[in-house]
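Data availability (excerpt). The following record was deposited with the supplementary files.
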Amino acid sequence: MTLYYRDVYDHIVRQYETADSLRDLLTSAMDVYLSTVSNRLNQTTKALTVIASLFLPLSFLTGFFGMNFSYLTGVLELPYWTFWIGVATMVGATLIQLYLFRRRGWL
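Predicted structure:
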């Protein structure tokens, strides 16, 4: 009877070690999955940051010159071509940012 219990004990120990190694394997698989999800989230966050930084100067200029102050409106009543200079400046700044971001591999 003692041999039988020793054999059962050996089987239990082996199953316990198998379960322990499988638990470690599942923990490693979960870490790999979470790392992959984190990397995807970082890529998405980077893309959103680049897009936000493209629109930041445009939003600032639009908001600043959209204010209704008498000294600004008097100064800004210049010939019509000044509007196109402002638009060209904003488009040029955006294109330069896009070029720099693509050159650095951010887009």
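Summary of structural features: Residues 2-103 form a domain with the Methane Monooxygenase Hydroxylase; Chain G, domain 1 fold (CATH 1.20.58.340).
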